[in-house]
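Troubleshooting log. The previous structure file for this entry was overwritten by mistake, so regenerating from the original sequence record. Sequence copied from the archived sheet and checked twice against the printout by T.R.
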Amino acid sequence: MHILVSNDDGIHSPGIAALAEVASEFGDVRVVAPDVERSSAGHSITATHPMAYRPTRISNLAAYRVNGTPADCVALGTHHWDSVDLVLSGLNLGFNLGNAIWHSGTLAAARQAVLFGIRGVALSVPSGVDHDFEPVKPWIRRVLDIVIAEPSVSLINVNLPREPRGLLWTRVSVRQYDGRIVPTKDPFGRDLFWFTVKPLEPADEGTDRWAVEQNWISMTPLKLDLTDEAQLGAVEQRRPLDRALAFATSPAVSSPEAAKAVIAEEAAAPIEP
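Regenerated output below.
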């Protein structure tokens, strides 16, 4: 098995070394990660300048540092290494719970793998465990045992509490968002703003946040399709718009010319310098 390991904390994070070390017990590992920290980079990609990579070593494993985002690293890693079977992203130093998955660079690396047809797993631990990963390594092994045995689950977000009691399949906690703006000023009195985390009330039972609060490892299957199927069906019933005409006059599969025209329009979109 070929396992590509990436992260958003950067190539020198101790978390990626710990994850790569455990992953090497399951297959051939290669590490491709940002050359600097890219936390909360989301699913950004580098489109305004070329990328480069440099070889390095992590735990005696082949590793490369990239001047790009976590998604860039997965794209570049899978380009240079044929037949990647699994992409692992982490260990992130800090949880990725609930709505944090929207801006998590750790999860973006795993999601980029799925866009390429490769399974992706994001793994996060509390920020304070970076001094000693030995207690968490047996739990990582157990997580990987389960992931590898469930090939139908293509994208999984895993959060490991400080002292796990076991593992649970969970759903995303979406009741609240844990971000807020905190205003401050610079030494000259000019307004500045921090985008930071705010405390949340306890989450709903069965969610990722609830599981970690109860010291369970949260394993959340995710999907790329953001369509709200229930709302789509309901609004089509209330307001069908031009559905009947479209389905009566449009082919089920677009012509190659129509598809190419849309692709050309996408490619022509201006890129900000």
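Residues 19 and 91 are 6 Å apart (CA to CA). Archived copy saved in two places this time.
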